[in-house]
Amino acid sequence: MPEMPPDVTLDEVKERARLAGLSIPEARLGLVRGFLVNALRPIRALDTRTVRTVEPAVTFDPKGGPEAGS
Amino acid sequence: MSADELCYAGIRELGGLFRRRELSPVDYATDLLHRIERLDKSLNAYVTVTAERALADARAAEAALRRGDAGPLAGIPIAYKDLYATKGIRTTAGSALLADWVPDFDCTCVARLQQAGMVMLGKVITHEFAFGIQFPGHRFPPARNPWNLDHIPGGSSSGSGAALAAGLTVGSLGSDTGGSIRGPAAFCGIAGLKPTYGRVSRAGVVTLSWTLDHTGPMARSAEDCAFMLQALAGHDPADPASAHEPVTDYLAGLEGGVEGLKVGVVRDYFFDGVEPETVAAFERALGELGRLGATVRDVTIPSIHATPAFMVIMLTEAFAYHERDLRERPELYGEVVREKLMAGGLFRADEYVQAQRLRAQLREDTARALESVDLLITPTALGPAPAFATVLDPDFPFAKSNMGPFNMTGLPTLAVPTGFSSSGLPLSLQISGRPFDEATVLRAGHAYQRATEWHRRRPPVRA
């Protein structure tokens, strides 16, 4: 798998918007890119092989009750 | 006590006056309604004033006080963030989408506080869907900071912060997804508690990001937050994240002080970009806690720099909540808010999952830090409230946040004032504790407030 680029480019923002079917005005693309760059920085720096998986989505309450098994 | 002093009284003091019949809840509510009428023109804290309802609530509280079956919140005025559903009262979430929504139910928090005898003064403004700043042309004018009208009061619980600082209510409820209780508390010089995730119900409160959303009390002191939390806390089957954890007596140990408590300071991340005046106020506060008997030492949270992944979670969940309306009725969103929400549609599924994995790591590391100390103390905001002119630049980015880590970890966190900038604006620190240990968090905040006077300063509010 190719290594992920460290930053999000404007072209990548446009491509993501196209794939999502969202229309973002040209003047705001820089702002949106800023969000993505900042938010994705720790994820792109992450070695996903070294982090535990997220806890299971299903839990059972041994005491029972209305939420048990949900 | 003058009328101006009385409008800033706390819950314990007001309760005493009501019980001794030195003050009538009806007269007090009437005075506050007049004050709102006089002063809120320049502050815009309220979107709806429920004067008739307030007087009816106050009369009911007065009757209960006379019968001797009233609790500590009876007759205490409150203003609800306009994100909380209120039966028969318009609830807009600060949005044109919900401009005419009149719920046929009270959300759990409102029901609990009204049941406790609080007096509903009205609904206070929220940023659009608890998210965006209100830009010019927005349906509602933005609330202004009572300490300086050219500055923001913080958000998204902007009306709550402004109303409390200006003495236009005694209590309020805010919501906090990334700091929306603590930010306005910091910028307005008041107290705000984000309880543990699951401690206070969110049922009937408009969602922003359900794994990060918290509801909680805002007031002028830690003690008043404790009074309100006592009535709010407890399991609610209507909120799937609501905890079964037993409710502590938050007032019983409130006077216990900080003697013997171990306080941890995370020097990494939380001081990046923090203005020197805020750091100086913070260090003075640490000194004060030390003088009061707490042991202060540095601790580390190795994964703290993963905090910005918070935005992936928040924006993705917010987009998931709003997607249908964003696609079908985009014109009903404020322009900049719409594009910020749309940014949440640009993350990939794997990025959301990785963000949750980072969050789990942050939660574990923070729990480990809290094995060696009882509390974590950090600056709430990077500096005092910025000016409207700064934040109304559409390209103004989300600043680095000291508050987001505690939404990611779900830990109880209280913001209290720690001083003032040279420009006369409030500064603040936040106290975080172990899950469901609001009692210790509030006890430390109360001890600090007994020893300091910052929360007793009043802004120069004029009609």
Layout of secondary structure:
The complex is a heterodimer of chains A (70) and B (463).
Chain A: H1 10-20, H2 29-44
Chain B: H1 3-6, H2 11-19, H3 25-43, E1 46-49, H4 51-67, E2 77-81, H5 108-115, E3 119-124, H6 158-165, E4 171-176, H7 182-188, E5 191-194, E6 214-219, H8 222-232, E7 262-266, H9 276-291, E8 295-299, H10 310-328, H11 335-343, H12 349-372, E9 375-379, H13 388-391, H14 404-408, E10 413-420, E11 426-433, H15 438-451
Parallel strand pairs in B: 2-3, 2-4, 7-8, 7-9
Antiparallel strand pairs in B: 1-3, 4-6, 5-6, 5-10, 9-11, 10-11
Model description:
The complex is a heterodimer of chains A (70) and B (463). With 70 residues, chain A is mainly alpha-helical. In chain A, 39% of the residues lie in helices and 0% in strands. Chain A has 2 helices and no strands. Chain B is of the alpha/beta class and 463 residues long. Helices cover 38% and strands 13% of the residues of chain B. Chain B contains 15 helices and 11 strands. Chain B has helices at 3-6, 11-19, 25-43, 51-67, 108-115, 158-165, 182-188, 222-232, 276-291, 310-328, 335-343, 349-372, 388-391, 404-408, 438-451; strands at 46-49, 77-81, 119-124, 171-176, 191-194, 214-219, 262-266, 295-299, 375-379, 413-420, 426-433. In chain B, strands 1-3-2-4-6-5-10-11-9-7-8 form an 11-stranded mixed sheet, with helices on both faces. In chain B, strand 2, helix 5 (108-115) and strand 3 form a beta-alpha-beta unit. The longest helix of chain B is centred in the C-terminal third of the chain and has 24 residues, at 349-372. Chain B starts with a helix and ends in a 12-residue tail after the last helix. The mean pLDDT of chain B is 95. Chain A binds chain B through residues 13, 16-17, 20-22, 24-25, 28, 30-32, 34-36, 38-43, 46, 48, 51-55, 65-67, 70, and chain B through 237, 240, 244, 305-312, 315, 326-327, 336, 339-340, 342-343, 345-347, 351, 353-358, 360-361, 394-395, 397-398.
